Please model this.
Amino acid sequence: MKYDLIIFDFDGTLANTFDWFIDALNHLAGPFNYRRIEVDEIKALRLSNAHALYKDRKVSRWKTARIAARLRSMMAADIDQISLFDGVDRLLRALDHDGVPVGIVSSNSEQNVRRILGPELSACIDYFECGVSVFGKAKKLKKIVKKSGVDLSRAIFVGDEIRDIGAAQKVGMPYGVVAWGYNDFDALKDTSPDAYYESVAELIEKNRYPDG
Model:
C-alpha cells in the first residue's frame, strides 16, 4: 500500500546513532548516578523499550528529561560522527520527487536533525516535530497529520523502537518498522505492523511501487 503521508522517526530509522547513544549514555552514568550499559546487556536492551531502560536504572521522569537535553547537546558537539543509513538520501529524494509529504518526529533537536540531513535533504522534509519528550511522540504525530490534511488511515509512522509503535497505536494510525534500528526486528514484527522493511531499498520500493 502506498501512503499519502510518511512520518519517520529519526535516530535509528534514518540516522545511524545506536552506538553513539550507548557511549553517550555511559558517559552520563556518573553525573546522573545510574548504572552503565554493559556490552552483554545490549542484546536484551534491543528487546525492551526506553522506559524499561530507565526504570531498570531507577531514573526518574524528571531526570530522564535532563538526560535527553544533555544528549542533544552532546550530539550537537559530535555531529560530524553521525551519518545517515546508506540509501536514506535516495529514499528522501524519491519521496520528494513523487510528491509524497514527509515528516520527522524525533526526541533529537531540529538543529541536529537538519545538520545531519544537510540542506538538500532537509528541503525534502515537509514537517519537523523535534525535541519531543521520550514518551511524547503521539501528540506530535497527531499534529503533523492534522497539518497535512491527510486522512489518518492514509498516513504511516515508520520507526525502529517499541515506543514508536506505542505512539502510532495511541493515535490510531498505521505504522511500519525497520530492521536496522534500535529494537530487535523480530520483536517489532511480532506486534503485527502494517508494513515492515528489511532494507532502505525495500522501503523505497514499497512506497514508490505499491503492490509489488
About this structure: The chain is about 50% helix and 15% strand. The radius of gyration is 17 Å. The mean pLDDT is 93.
